[in-house]
Amino acid sequence: MTTSVSQALRSPTQHALEDPFWVRSLLIFVSIAFLALLLVMPLAVVLFEALRNGIGAYLASFQDPAGWHAIKLTLIAAGLSLPLNLVFGIAAAWCITKFDFPGKSVLIAIIDLPFAVSPIVSGLLFVLIFGMHGWVGHWLTDHGVKVIFAIPGIVLATVFVTFPFVARELIPLMQEQGSEEELAALSLGANGFQTFLRVTLPNIKWALLYGVILSNARAMGEFGAVSVVSGHIRGKTNTLPLHIEILYNEYNVNATFAMASLLCLLGLVTLAVKTFLEWKVQEQLNRTLEYSPTHEPTTAEVKA
Amino acid sequence: MSIAVRNISKSFGAYTALKNVSLDVKDGELLALLGPSGSGKTTLLRIIAGLDQPDANADSAVLFHGEDVAHRRVGERRVGFVFQHYALFKHMSVFENIAFGLRVRPKSERPSKHVIRDKVTELLRLIQLEALGNRYPWQLSGGQRQRVALARALAIEPKVLLLDEPFGALDAKVRQGLRAWLRRLHDKLHMTTILVTHDQEEALEVSERVVVMNQACIEQVGTPEEVFHNPSTEFVMEFLGCVNVFHGRVEGGKVHLGGTATALGGSTSSSSEKANLYVRPHELEIERRRNGSVSLPATVKRIHPAGSFAKVLLEDAEGRKIQVDLPFGQLEELALRVEETVFVIPKKFRTFGEEYSI
Questions:
Q1: What is the pLDDT of residue A303?
Q2: ipTM confidence score
Q3: Which H, E and C letters describe B213-247, residue by residue?
Q4: Closest chain B residue to A177 measured between Cα atoms?
């Protein structure tokens, strides 16, 4: 009895939450093993295979004009979908967080549609609409516009699968921030554009960048939807992921992994930028919370 | 600048925030809109500012100096609006916050950099934060933030200052200080100012006239003295300070309460009527013996001696609570004990709408 009481006094309450040593070790081991097997090892394999025949062979794989074209096409698709996503993302987040209108909940649900639908299906949707036998396909062909098996289709499919990212990132932040600052700016005589540029944009810039980075990574790596609409025409409508598949199917191991290493590099860069932005977004959110009316600054803050 | 509000209604879906409200604000006066939350006071302020639109109605209007401003947007009305939660621009320094209204002017009207700097410096001095121009809003205390918000509103040289619960989020001590400061500021600037508050003490202390609002309507408009001493409705009586309600009867020039009766001074109607007698705590006296005047037996429950007078809480035979405010001298003289039965004597009471003195 006395021992248990003295033990309870000695051990703070958090001991109740602490697992035994063997449980902790097991959990840590399992997670690390999983990461190593499924993430680190494949990444290492890609780089190893790409460089297996020496750096010269690695660089030589980039001399293939079809490969270059795929890289260019990927950059074009990502570059075009980026501004579209930016405009759509800000517009959607703005109207969802700043106004009330009928059908708002429907819009919120629909924004997530690309996440819910399989990319293959979204690709097929575009074929059904814009393809030769699609709803508007005939009309487009008559006017000399080619969407499916051409660049416009690839851009459309890319935009479709990436458009939720920016809006999804902005909505919670803008909801947290409310619209009082915008009202204040308007009452001080600013017009709508000035209000957006000087008040709204600085408040959401990190979250916006975060959304852009995520949607860019997805745009460059998208396979399924683009695969359906592109038609896999080598040197014409192949994006980087599609080109990699072709190389792989042709047993061109060296070139496959050289191209794949590019996408891996993109992934790593995205990861690094994403981590930095996450930290910035959190800081911005904390500032919003700190700034809440009930918060009084600490002495350290006042002295700063 | 004078402001007139005519027949303004506003509903949000099924909820009515304002019901056909009309109000006149005189040039240069400090007017308080006072009421409980949900009474429509903030909605009225936002409609005056142009932040909300009133329900469409042919004879409704908001007039600034006699001119209808319905078509003018908030930025064109030249109103200085101060929000309850400050709404300072988080990413801008104090200086930039105050300069904002000048910097966003169209190029032809925008003052030069020099003029802006002088103007902001002058405003920083006015709000006594000269040294803090480079700070960011999150580095300021609540009271400092609210002063910055006020300076930012003043920078555009508004014709009207509209304050929406400006001190609502601050603690009691800071509120006291800012209230006195606002009053001095108004004496200096003489700008037409409308202050929204749910704090009756704040409204009575700061403003020249008080508009008491309840359930989307205006209950009474008057000076602080008028609304406090001559409330025109039960609501105003109860909202402005403590009040005891006794269920009595007024009949034949006499008031009957708890089996006792007293003749009333002044002319009275001869008809008999049941009446709720409203008596403020300081209008009650406590006696050990019945002295022939109208009185009610009650048991002493608690005595709070902390404050500028002593608060005595009692209960009558039916368990209804009564509060009496006694000067300390009288409290000592009486030497009240808890659970003792005494007699409570109203010196003055009011039924709506007549006032009687005994």
A1: 41
A2: 0.81
A3: EECCEEEEEECHHHHHHCCCCHHHHHHCCCCEEEE
A4: B87
